[in-house]
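forwarding from the other thread:

> can someone predict this with iron/sulfur cluster?

sure thing
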Amino acid sequence: ADGSLVPAVKTTCPYCGVGCGVSGVVAQARSLAVSGDVAHPANEGRLCSKGSTLGATVGLEGRLLSPMIGEREVGWSEAAGLVARRFSQTIARYGPDSVAFYVSGQLLTEDYYVANKLMKGFIGSGNIDTNSRLCMASAVAAHKQAFGADLAPGCYEDLDLADLVVFSGHNAAWTHPVLFRRMEAQRARGQKHVAIDPRRTDTAEVADLHLALAPQMDVRLWNGLLADLIGRGAIDRSFIAEHVNGFASVEAELAQADQSPAAVAADCGLDLADLQTFFQMFADTPKTVSLFSMGANQSAQGVAKGLAILNAHLATGRIGKPGACPFSITGQPNAMGGRETGGMANTLAGHMDFAPDDVARVARFWGAPKTSPKPGLKAVDMFEAVHDGRIKAIWVMATNPAVSMPDAGRVREALAKCPFVVVSDCMADTDTMAFAHVKLPALAWGEKDGTVTNSERRISRQRALFPAPGQAKADWRIIAEVADAMGFGDAFSWARPASVFREWTRLTAFENLSRTLNLSGLVGLSQADYDELAPVQWPVGADRLGTPRLFTDGRFQTPDGRANMMPVASKGPATACDPAFPLSLNTGRIRDQWHTMTRTGLAADLWRHAPEPFVEIHPEDAAAVGVTEGVLTRVQTVRGEAVAIARLTDRQRRGGIFMPIHWTKAYAPSGRSNTLIAPSVDATSGQPEFKHTPAWVRAY
Ligand code: SF4
């Protein structure tokens, strides 16, 4: 008002795994103007519709601003004391595995680190899992098998340099729009795009080639590609000889099936000429990046899909080179940070597994002799254990499993009968909050202060633009207060997020504990350095310059330094369609909403894209059951029923339907699609098969 310039605060978008830099200017209380941060390497000033409407989501309507026990507002000491007492009593009576934390890729790395330290180190259970289980777990397992550690080899610059980009189950135009724009810009110089997706998504619509494969046939397709590359002599035998194990066993596995293009095309439901065009493009293009995301990961064969993609790149030596890599794109803003700090039930902090030496080292670092010696329950198993009573107290942080888990109706049943449910969230009225015995108010984006890691391993700061409203606190601080009330205060006594970050980075360098995720260059950052931390890609050595690209020397993180090609066989969907449920239900995001809409639902502009839940169906399938455009339509599976508006489109493959994942009780409870999803999971990763559930539809 006085004409003085308000300084912009540089922070990071809270939505997808692109991790765009945002420049925010607070005009007045709870009013914010945002623009893309031109200095952030992930987006160079661009923002998508979600990022550019962040200013409309920072109001206080709907916020949880006070701790609550039942419907009674209480102070922090009473709330934290009750949580500590009930968890301690449950552990004393039933053991540490009778409690669990279910956390979120929305948490900052500091939050994740503290939650993991409390559960794995001081409670002594592995029962902490993250909603990244629903998103990334299959890629994590594939990376570990092939590379020896959960390492994403490439960087966004590779997307600029590639001559061919393969989108494998990845509708980047909607899910990672800023990256997609970046690649679109490269098409002017001749970059080619191939989209592998049952739906003709916006990404597929403008691609040079769209392969609308049958559901869950990705392994068949990628194995067929590898067989074709071998057949035409388009693999890199010297790279394999020097750097790769397992090629012979993969060849032997390929020989178990007819890998002729005609057979592969028939099994995948593809046009033979299109398939051969793809094989030729891949063979001819050394600078190929294969992006894979939820369409690959969310499958009972998710790990095999990832490995089949990695096999094609390892066999051709297309890894660790500019413009050439397999590239798992994360869904959430800090899915990667959770993987780093041990937010998954089957990993320890610093990318360690539960090998006895690693458990002992982490326990020494924490001074926590009770550190869990074994993994905990993964998300689907965790809620099943809540349902059958093995888990008697659960704390859900910054996520909404009553909507987002598969078979979400059963998850709601589990939470309803759980003896003690704690939910910490910034919003007061989510589907999950309805089951909370204790509600803990957490900071929202714009108030939080800490770090996140995006898909290219780039650590960026989220910085606070507003003071904490009401009694809301940072997640790491809430967890530390409960830990203190449980008697672990000495190990949870940080004053600020920079202190947590310093401890976390020391852990990555402790006794050379983390060979892959070394942040030694960030150890001992001063508060000022932490405040000013510029985006940097891990590993971070003494020069603090970071590491854009991994495996450039052909050495991997396995004991012998060689990558592993792993034989994988195509199995198709976990549950086949049948006459009662003849359609394959596929679920996913839409362009302008995020997860369960607790934030994006606040931005009026974002509703224009899709104002109500819908089901996409091919016109011929719709005609067969009397469904017409725009009618209310019942979608049913063996797990439940949802109601949505029919959208008839030939972008949908015949025999398949698509529903978005976002709708909740606040906006349209009958549109909650995850109520329909069977909890079939990948046996290794535990990731559910969100992309295929047998279903039928009828006009309502
Ligand atoms: Fe960038 Fe993703 Fe945020 Fe869009 S949602 S601005 S692409 S980080």
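The domain at 137-329 is CATH 3.40.228.10 (Dimethylsulfoxide Reductase; domain 2). thats all i got for now
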